[in-house]
Amino acid sequence: MDEKSQREHYKQLLITVFKAFHFILSLIIFNLFWYMFRYGKIFTEVEAGFRYNYFVVFAFAIMLFFFNRTYNSYLLGYTRIRLLAFSEVLSQLFATIAIYMLVSIAWDHWDNPFWFILMIICFCCLDILWSYFANMYYFKLYPTKKTILIYRNELDKRRFGSITGKPSGRLYKVTEELQYDGRFSDLKDKLSGYEAIFVAGVNSKCRNGILKYCKEEGIPGFFLPHVGDVIMQKAQHIKSLDSPVLYVNRSTIRPEYRIAKRAFDFMVALVAIVVLSPVMLITAVAIKLYDGGPAIYKQVRLTRGGKEFKIWKFRSMRVDAEKDGVARLSSGDNDDRITPIGRFVRKCRLDELPQLFNILQGDMSFVGPRPERPEIAEQYYKTIPDFKLRLQVKAGLTGYAQIYGKYNTDPYEKLEFDLLYINDMNLLTDLMLVFATVSILFLSESTEGVAVGATTAMDYENAADSTENDTETVTK
What we know:
Oligomer: single chain
Largest sheet: 4 strands, parallel
Number of helices: 15
């Protein structure tokens, strides 16, 4: 191992120790408050049931690990301190609630949760302090890297995103933006001196050259993927053949997973409807009283195999919102079709609650691609034929695109997010995505609308140039 690799290994080890310190300290805090909850004091001579205490702490550790993964609680360097602390508190909160409920069910009574509430307050203090010092320490270990951005056109550049004003801007300082789509041999000399490379949309041969260059020089490379890249991510290696052949086929859902997923959808939707029925009733009454129009509206959407169904939502727009007969997405706060009640309903995501009945009926799942309107989907198909690949599975209330994207996310990126989920469908992923949805309820930017006057999230001016001649895009 060369000196550069040794330094990198040492840095990663230090960061791992820093993360482990926070995790272990969380377990110690939980253990102390658990003893206060069960015995009324931290130290006790009671020996009976001590193995039970170890089991509870172990169960909390498992749950905390799961929620930490769900909310990316240790994503140092790429997350703002307040969001990092928020994700940690959210992880500890859900793990604590789960333990309290399990213990209460096991004991057949509900004790005063005072010590658990006090524990959450201590967790908040720990998380704020740790997030601040851990991020500060991370940036000392990883100084700013001189970075070049190589892109094919303005749409690819915009899709890659800007790091200006983001925490990652302290890690990678883009000192040159190069619009290029030629041969790698003509580009190689221009890469000298850069410590990181961002690549967005260049042709496959050039991109492969940059990939090899990053590997050889030990330089971090960040690449905007094509649809084909996402599909190949879960390709299966056929070991019985003489050559390293990768097998790809249409995604199929195993019968046991299909049954388990439907059972999960049905039971959770039923419980959610019962628990949230007061909220839905108040929302419906408020919408009805505002303008006298219907509280619920139905709209045709697409699900698995292109099947049409009627989605249920609380009405947030005027009754005559589409009196011109043109299907268009919302432009967010700039959309004058949204009523005052509707703005609140959208901001709190209350408009989505009636879809619990769609899930109960089997038209939708909790996790899956967001269902599009047929009129808007047809517009996307003309420029992105691959957009139909989303229809391999049932439409969902939440998913990668809904959590990590926005309402106005480019449809090509939505497709890639959805294919990432289709590649990795399992109950654990579904459960993580359901819990991860909670975090976006506090992010107002996730509901940003499309541009004023636009009907879809597509940038038609640059989209055709971005997708044509894309040799790595796999069509249906």
